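Readers of this paper often ask what the protein records in our data store actually look like. The remainder of this section carries one protein's record, kept here as part of the documentation.

:::
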Amino acid sequence: MEKLIVIRYAELSTKKSNINQFINKLKENISYALEGIDNTIYFDKGRMFIETNDYEECVNRLKSIFGIQGIILSYKINSDENEIKDCVLKLLKDKKFKTFKVTTKRSYKNFPINSMDFSRQIGAHILKNINNLSVDVNNPELLVSIEIRKDNTYIYLDEIKGLGGYPVGVSGKGLLMLSGGIDSPVAGYLAMKRGIRLEAIYFAAPPHTSDEALEKVKTLAKKLALYNHNIKLHVINFTEIEETIYKDIPRDYLITIMRRMMYRISTKIAYKNKLKCLINGESVGQVASQTLSSMQVINEVTKMPVIRPVVCFDKLEIIDLAQKINTYETSILPFIDCCTIFVPKHPVINPESNKCEEYEKLIDWENMIDKAIENEEIIKIKVNENQEYEDLL
């Protein structure tokens, strides 16, 4: 009886001609996550298998990998009826339970007993050899799962739910506009779930924004890097642009013009780094710059796709997910970002494109943007191999 981890693929099962691309990317991501642990990975189109000498740590790290539907601590034996029965009893010997159910999946059709009949036989064998048990097909305390394949049979009792989604990187790369608030880290997490590998951009405005605000964003990037392997953080000095807008642009249009400048800079950074989309935490109606009218006018300055994963979430839904991915407590730290420094009392909620273009002529925004990009600071955020994975326990 050989112990190993079995990976059930998530949405990869919906793919056909390009399934190998998805599986290879998943294997690559798992190999990266398991660095420092002895392991052997092999796979077919139905499952991935991992042999290791540290199952607990390995399972814990696999919890942060998108593209996995289930993580199963399994036992591999020969596809022999008597050997399967003996193995099941050995595995149940030290378990405490009153009710159980047996499920069998028989992908090897030459096995002489069909799935339903074999499940009944194994269930009867358990009842005969272990006292005070009963079968419960609806809500069992213990589920005994058997997969009969051509070469081997796999038996497992517990399955840990994975993150689902697509392997990070299989959909290309995108640029996350990481503000330091609650919404944008959640948006980044959801984008990664769809297979987008992240880089991030942060707009600093010293001395109006503090070093602590930047550290806060770096911490958020580090938490996201747990799912992304690492993140390149582009830090843009936005002070000159923001101060100029505040001095020369009508107050009600401050936020709209500022967001248009951020979009322009983000677009140039994305093209420069061969990224395929922008990602942000905008949610319809949450603030003045996120009304449909505002989004339309702000979006006019870029031809790059803008992905808004939380666009239809309400705030409580976003907070729930932020708490789940362990970004919420960092996001609410009281260090202001440049989006909240000069917020007017009555920002326009239905801005007009022609007014934006008219007001932008009042400032030399092209040169200021080029200067900001030229002086960007790049910070490479890497996951802490031990501490961050411990947070998942």
Remarks:
- The chain has a mean pLDDT of 91.
- The domain at 2-164 is CATH 3.30.2130.30 (VC0802-like).
- DSSP finds 14 helices and 14 strands in the chain.
